[in-house]
Amino acid sequence: VNVILLGPPGAGKGTQAKRLVDERGMVQLSTGDMLREAKTSGSEMGRKAAEVMDRGELVTDEIVIGLIREKLSTPSAGGFIFDGFPRTLPQADALADLLAQMGQGLDAVIEMQVDDAALVARITGRYTCGNCGAVYHDQTKPTATPGVCDACGSTDLRRRADDTEAALSKRLMEYYKKTSPLIGYYYAKGQLSSVDGLADMETVSAEVAKVLDSGK
Ligand code: AP5
Ligand code: ZN
């Protein structure tokens, strides 16, 4: 099964993607995570992308399509979860071409619906484990022991450089201008399903599972 998780910053794409990896052996392809890895590696591309990301703008289609192309060359029996990709119409077209070349297609596109007010609270409360990538929240999902990752025991808990209110308002604008047209694009193809992203994490997971198991 190949699925796209579509939604604004803080909608819960990464949270749900990680659950699908654990529960279904799928492979998560998060272009945001790939770009942050490139930043940490200190490569020229990573440094350039980091500047753009920290402002809350989108990096070029060329860079992210290249990253996805590379990852798709390793097959996944459980399928791929596209998290934060595609984000523009050219990226959506490129993904369709890449999957077609592999003799595959998309099985579902899940739009996670949330409102802006909730996003600010989600983003400003978020922290992640620098070692294993687990995602936490000050109010809705704190670690059991303060300062220690539940999943791996690491004390390297971090906040993202673009999780400020200023960068978030830019990220939201980019989403509405460049990414939200994909909702109509996939609706027209009969591939779109929507879930209420404001529900608690368990409920959202159950809704996502329902879509995947219905084969849409
Ligand atoms: P990216 O890393 O993709 O960030 P994003 O889309 O802004 O999404 P987030 O990771 O912020 O949110 P999420 O939906 O995954 O939410 P999460 O599960 O963490 O992109 C970052 C940047 O990289 C972009 O701005 C751009 O510059 C660049 N980039 C990436 N991809 C690109 C592309 N394709 N093209 C061009 N540029 C690209 O949840 C958020 C918080 O809420 C967490 O604390 C979580 O614990 C909590 N939470 C989650 N679900 C619930 C729930 N149901 N109830 C209560 N709390 C919840
Ligand atoms: Zn961890």
Q: What is the tally of beta strands?
A: 8
Name every ligand kind in the structure: BIS(adenosine)-5'-pentaphosphate, zinc ion
User: What structural class results from the helix and strand content?
Assistant: alpha/beta
Q: Helicity range of the residues?
A: 40-55%
Shape: globular
Poorly predicted segments: none
Instruction: Work out the helix count.
Output: 9
Q: Spell the H/E element sequence.
A: EHEHHHEHEHEEEHHEH
Task: Output the strand order for the largest sheet.
Answer: 2-3-1-4-8
Rg over alpha carbons:
16 Å
Strand content: 5-15%
Main β-sheet, in a few words? 5 strands, parallel
- Please state the average pLDDT score: 96
- Taking the alpha carbons of the first and last residues, their distance comes to 10 Å
Can you offer a commentary on this structure?
By secondary structure, this protein is of the alpha/beta class. The chain contains 9 helices and 8 strands. The strands form 2 sheets. Strands 2-3-1-4-8 form a 5-stranded parallel sheet. Strands 6-5-7 form a 3-stranded antiparallel sheet. The mean pLDDT is 96. Bound molecules: BIS(adenosine)-5'-pentaphosphate and zinc ion.
Summarize the structure.
The protein has 216 residues and is α/β, with parallel strands linked by helices. It contains 9 helices and 8 strands. Strand 5 and strand 6 form a beta hairpin.
